[in-house]
Design a protein that fits this description.
Structural class: mainly alpha
CATH topology: Tetracycline Repressor, domain 2
CATH superfamily: Tetracycline Repressor, domain 2
Number of helices: 9
Distance between the termini: 85 Å
Strand content: under 5%
Number of domains: 1
CATH architecture: Orthogonal Bundle
Number of strands: 0
Shape: elongated
Oligomer: single chain
Length: 191
């Protein structure tokens, strides 16, 4: 009967535990109790807790390359930023339901684990590089990323504040108004 749960059920439960209680809440016995199954079901899908924790971290690390960048389809400028922020609004809700990895959960984990922090720092460098690729080497890149990190941190302390992210995203977009097409001022002459 316990085998009716699949690996994704356990991952979702683990993502929620990590989000709501930190890495210490990701315990096999506690997850099994929350899922109303025996621990044996867990071991049907995972070797041990360490494998589950490694998977939680790696799925978060990979989401930029596997999910976000492909959805941007090479777009640049305000259009790409708008799409990225729309993706982030959707992802906040999905991560709070345990369907996707949560920045808040991973950042909290990184605050208590130097090894996780090193990996998070690597991903953050890639995220900032993506922002620079999208909007150029503007000083706004750092500001945008810090707004996101601040939003995530506050959301951990005050989960109701997460509901404000769509408004925050709109404000961030206002930093980059749509560009007017440039007119070519070159004069051509015929010889």
């Amino acid at each position: 009967m316990d085998k009716d749960l699949d690996r994704n059920d356990w991952l979702k439960a683990a993502r929620l535990a990590l989000l709501t209680g930190g890495v210490e809440a990701v315990r096999v016995e506690k997850l099994a109790r929350n899922l109303s199954v025996t621990k044996g079901s867990f071991y049907w899908h995972f070797k041990d807790r360490e494998e589950l924790l490694a998977l939680l971290l790696s799925e978060w690390e990979e989401e930029l390359q596997k999910d976000i960048i492909p959805r941007l389809k090479g777009r640049r400028g305000p259009e790409a930023l708008r799409l990225l922020l729309q993706l982030m609004v959707a992802r906040v809700s999905l991560s709070e339901e345990g369907d996707l990895p949560s920045d808040a959960a991973i950042f909290t984990w990184a605050s208590v684990s130097p090894k996780v922090a090193q990996r998070v720092n690597q991903v953050e460098r890639k995220r900032i590089h993506l922002l620079k690729t999208i909007i150029g080497r503007s000083p706004h890149v750092e500001l945008l990323y810090l707004v996101w990190v601040g939003f995530v941190a506050r959301g951990q302390r005050d989960p109701d504040s997460r509901k404000q992210f769509p408004q925050v995203a709109r404000m961030m977009l206002n930093l980059f108004p749509p560009r007017k097409p440039r007119r070519d001022k070159r004069v051509t002459t015929k010889a």
